[in-house]
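Appendix B. Extra example for self-study. Work through it before the problem class; the solution is given directly after the inputs so you can check yourself.
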Amino acid sequence: MSVNFLISQAKNIQIVIDENAAEIEALDQNIGDGDHIFNVQRGLKLVVELEDDIKNLPLQKGLNMIAMKVLSGIGGSSGALFGTFFMSMAKTPDLDKDIDFNKACEMVITGINAMKERGKADVGEKTMMDVLIPVSEKLNELKSGNTDMKEGLSEIIKIAEDRMLGTKDMLATKGRASFLGERAKGHIDPGARSSQLIIDTICKSLINK
Amino acid sequence: MKKFINNVDDFLKESLNGFGKAHSDIIKVNFEPNFISRKTKTKEGKVSLISGGGSGHEPMHGGFVGHGMLDAACPGFVFSAPTPDQMQAAAENVDSGAGVLFIVKNYSGDIMNFQMGAEMYSGKNDSIITNDDVAVEDSTFTTGRRGVAATVLVEKIVGSLAENGGSLEECKKLGEKVNKNSGTMGVAFTSCTVPAAGKPTFDIGNDEMEFGVGIHGEPGRKREKIQPSKIIINNMLEAILDDLKPQKNEKTLLFVNGMGGTPLTELYLVYNDACEILKSKGIEITRSLVGNYCTSLEMQGASITLLKCDEEILNNWDAPVHTAAMRWGM
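Solution. Structure tokens for the complete assembly:
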């Protein structure tokens, strides 16, 4: 993992999110307040625009700049959560050394744990954490196991998709959808959908490399 | 979408610029990060009150910055929580040594961003969270209620205590009391359109209303056919009274708030209906507030807030205030 890797992933993700923007917006309007997709799009645009400022920086500095940009430029829950994600990734030890797959897993796990802490949400509450926590658990398994990397990434794609779809029949207890009680049932959580798309995009690009 | 817009991306900036120019005698607008502060620096030793939230609820919160109310307000994008650097910058700018009290509406984005802002601010600070909306009750299905129009009352009443030398602890305590003593219920006839979205947040039939709507157009308790005002207001008040359980002859403040698209003429009609219904239930209305204070862009609809008042609340309510949106006694 390097700053250039992060920027190129952000560009890939931007394309996929734009393609699915109308669907995510509709999900959010059904159960939330409709700002999620704009926040995600604004965040991706800000990160991509940072390219010239950060492309030659060491990973830790680059991550911190991305974190501050995301934190100050997005707003809403997404800004706080994704900002927390990058800020915590930057705190992973030994980032000045070569980042192999195991180290990258460790960084993502650290980031997701910090998001869980910030949002005080766990699995089963109809939020993006329903996708992110199981993915983080799988990464932890891959990190210490002997599974082939590409095989592991395919499993992650599957987990993210299943968990995203699984939010459909949940009652929300966190986020704006939580105020709706039973009425939020039957709709996929928009944050779970955008997170799943992001994970799907990154994993596929790594598998096809 | 029909709105006064030059360019969607400049919407907030241009609106804040206009606000700053129109009220240059009371406030100033700071950009990057965005916050609105009093024109004259907060006096030494006074607790500073800072609120904020997504834009689109004007005059909340910028319109409540000034003597007897807030020291600063942090506006986010339309319906999106502000960012931690805004709260940090506002706190650094207005803290005069007695600490900062953040007033936060109970929405996950606001809570997280204010929390991070408070962590980033090195000075003494504390927070209160408003959650007056009785539409969706605290139950096994929900962890919390939304913070809506009573936030205006909290900001006014705590603002007065802070102006008169109340400590950070006393201000927090009074704010929590006002929040606990108030209940709000909202109804919408039409949706609103977020400029960045360009189309209405929800679809609603010509003869329908959303009972228990949130201030971002989030669905409430149920979708119903519209009815005569008296029936709607009675249902709203019942939801509030069920929750607040005021004593017979308990003094209250009745606050009829417009969502942005309903004329004052109708809001006064609502006030009239609410007065008659409350009177018939033996509840005494001792103070009133009617107008557009906590809006949802151009949404047609109204919310009713009832606040149970003791002497401390009444005295602080009556105290002088001078802000862009609320002014009396000075």
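Self-check: The first helix of chain B runs from residue 11 to 22. If your reasoning did not lead you there, revisit section 3.
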